[in-house]
Write a structure and sequence with these properties.
Blueprint lengths: L27 H15 L3 E3 L9 E5 L4 E12 L3 E8 L2 E11 L1 E7 L5 E7 H14 L10 H22 L1 H7 L1
Antiparallel strand pairs: 1-2, 2-3, 3-6, 4-5, 6-7
Helix pairs in contact: 3-4
Length: 177
Amino acid sequence: MIYTLLEKDHPLVHSALPEYVDSDEVNRKEFSDSMVESMKHWGGIGLSANQVGFSHRMFVMGDNEHYICCWNPKIIVESEDQTPIEEGCLTYPGLFVKIRRPDWIEVEFEDENGEKHTDTFEGLMCRVFQHEMDHMDGIDFTSRAKKMDLNIAKRKLKRGKLKLKRAHGKDMLARAS
């Protein structure tokens, strides 16, 4: 099942989620599979449950071949070294903002079967894990950006929409919003 993305101003997108406790109402495996399917459908590399209307403390991340489902994730240790890299978000289509994040993290999470895992991530998966954790903590990725970087990104997005409008008319602009 493909879930619909919530609008950026929906309250659940900005809500901190409590730890997930298993219940008869949610099958972790089925929900995880639907989350992966939804993430692929929307063209993302990470998707948090609250982005699609669920208050489960879980997210999925992956690269079109390998996926990790993270229930009740925690960052245990993070590097002191940070690197700024442009990030995008399915909740903000077309907006790419430079965000500083730790270079590596050590994490704990439960998988779709409820088994606990400890892992260390660096590079892209490190960044995606932190971005999705922010979603579950009710933190909007734009709030992590320097004001100047956010303003530059918003101007680039606006210019891109204007180019679409000039090239394809109003209908294309409405679909890009």
